[in-house]
Amino acid sequence: MDTMSARGTGPGRILVMVYAIFALAAGARAGVQIATKLQHAPVAYVLSAVAALIYLLNAIFLGRASASSWRVARALCLVELVGVLAVGTASLVVPQEFPDATVWSRFGIGYGFVPLVLPILGLAWLGRTRPDRG
Length: 134
Description:
Elements: H1 3-6, H2 11-37, H3 42-61, H4 67-93, H5 114-128
């Protein structure tokens, strides 16, 4: 089996499943928060919605066996990693800007730090299944 078709199997399938679960969890939470109390913490709630969208897109692109999907998934993982590092740092440095937690606040502490680890695992898996490795 070549590396491209292997991406959606075994550990890749688990990774896609975790991304899908996080898309659902973050999306549901952000949706309720945006619908009911957006004025309370708009930055936090919109960032959670952005995280949910990134998780959803990665759930789609990580499982696809094409070079273009690989590139999109890699870019999404990098954006996700930068996002969780930036939001995690900002939530510690200027906590008043984050009166309510986001998925990425304090590096994902509310989700067991999975938001911090997930893009690293995604990038590792993508490195292992890089199109030019097949």
